[in-house]
Amino acid sequence: MFFRDIPGQQDIKGRLIQSVMSGRVSHAQLFLGPEGCGNLPMAVAYARYISCLKRNENDSCGTCSSCIKYNKFIHPDLHFIFPVNSGKKKLDHPVSDDYINEWREKLLQNPWFIETEWYEFIGIENKQGFIGKDESQQIIRKLSLKPFESDHKILIIWLPERMNPAAANKLLKLIEEPPDMTVIIMVSESTEKILPTILSRLQVHRFSRISDKEMKTSLKKKFDLPENQLDNLIHISDGNYHRVLEIMDSSEEIALFLDKFASLMRICHQKNINMLVSLADELHAFGREKLKRFLDYSLKMIRENYAMNYNRQELVYLSSEEKSFSERFHPYVNRKNVHDIYTLLNKASGDIESNAYARIVLLDIGLQLFGRLEVEGDLT
Ligand SMILES: [Zn+2]
Question: What is the largest CA-CA distance in the chain?
Answer without folding.
Answer: 84
